[in-house]
Amino acid sequence: MALYKYDQHVTRGSGDAFDTEHKPGELTPHSGIYRCVICGREDVSEKGKPFPSQNHKQHTPGQGAIRWKLNVYSQGEPG
After folding, report:
1. What is the distance between the alpha carbons of residues 69 and 34, in angstroms, rounded to a whole number?
2. Are 32 and 70 in contact (CB under 8 A)?
3. pTM
4. Predicted pLDDT of residue 54
5. Sheet with 42-45, side-by-side order of all strands
6. What angle is formed at CA 32 by the lines to CA 8 and CA 42, rounded to 5 degrees?
7. Residue 56: pLDDT band by 50, 70, 90 thresholds?
8. Quick check: 15 pLDDT over 70?
9. Which of 79, 21, 76, 22 is nearest to 53 (CA)?
10. Cβ of 8: how many Cβ atoms within 10 Å?
11. What residues contact residue 55 under an 8 Å CB cut-off, 6+ apart?
């Protein structure tokens, strides 16, 4: 689970970006912290770069394939 200390640096978000699942190796649509919906491991992925590979942590055959879902959206430079 992603942690934060200062409330003023985070805002609750919504939208399809948080609901879409992504496969390992696909290009990341938004920079941020992504969570594997199967095992719960989190990793940072940068927009335009591939998601972490299938071997980020080997799942057991019963767990199924790795799927990444946006957990914390990074808006980039301060406004």
Report:
1. 5
2. yes
3. 0.83
4. 65
5. 21-22, 68-73, 32-36, 42-45
6. 105
7. low
8. yes
9. 22
10. 5
11. none
